[in-house]
Predict the 3D structure of the following.
Amino acid sequence: MEALGEFDLIGKYFTRPVKRAVLGIGDDCALLQPAPGMQLAISSDMLVEGRHFLSTVSPQRLGHKALAVNLSDLSACGARPLAFSLALAMPRAEEAFLAGFAQGLFALADEHGCELVGGDTTQGPLNICITVFGEVPPGKALLRSGARDGDDLYVSGQVGDARLALECFRGSVALSGDAFERVRVAMELPQPRVALGQALRGVASSAIDVSDGLLGDLAHILQRSGVGATVEVDAVPRSAVLASQPTALQRECTLAGGDDYELLFTAAPSQADAVQAAAHRSGVAATRIGRIHSSPGLRLVDARGQSVPHSFGSFDHFKS
Ligand code: ADP
Ligand code: MG
């Protein structure tokens, strides 16, 4: 079969008529028209083979995850997705890969009304960089800097399964086939909390998405807000599969796992009902896992209120 050229592959796999954007693929720039008065929210995330994903992942799931991690950033800011661009480097133009990748990518894009409007394609080691564009009412974006003394700390969904899956791939943990498939889905098909992020506008005081590990990402909120926190480690929600693992592994996965793409956020106690209403409307759980205090630092306690020693770091691409 004749190798597919750059423009043929863009035309065949990535070009679709735009519905909301003014202009999509095919010109030197795409044109977006945010609703009048709205602010643009912009974020980029890159996925590099061997660093952000394993070669064992299916192209379809890779397409999903590449967009999911970007939509997660929009969610953390409470923004509504509008459009995205895709910069793609691949060793070869393999049609089986491209077809699966595009399928996973567009399935998630369509679910959130987020259109592909442009990008770049080149030959090279597999590397996927997506930039997402969203909109948010002026002054309403959720920021890392808004946590205040006395706020409750919440996390959406469950955390830790993606890390447990990674440990299985590394061979340090063995699970039954069924349990492994379940945690593998958490790692390869994360669900960005797009509806929850928007529902938390005006309710949460600060937010971040958990990509590098819960405590590491919490540290960003604490630092930017100039506050400290106490986290109830046993209250952090986890799956039944993870809950059947040894305590130390549960804590490592839930507190320092990474790749969770859940929302970690704070809200004043007076907003507790509003938080639960937002979670209910969004079809995802929000669990209170601790409290913000004005004294700096991070304290971990167990279910009996005893201090839990910790040395959990955050994932750092230049240190690990
Ligand atoms: P330029 O040379 O002006 O940067 P290209 O020739 O690289 O543009 O791309 C042609 C068109 O295809 C542009 O509209 C660009 O945005 C789009 N495009 C290129 N690669 C991709 C991709 N991977 N996904 C979506 N659109 C792409
Ligand atoms: Mg150009």
Observations:
- The beta strands are 39-48, 80-90, 115-123, 127-136, 152-156, 206-209, 228-232, 263-267, 286-293, 297-301.
- The first strand starts at residue 39 and ends at 48.
- The two ends are 41 Å apart (CA to CA).
- The mean pLDDT is 95.
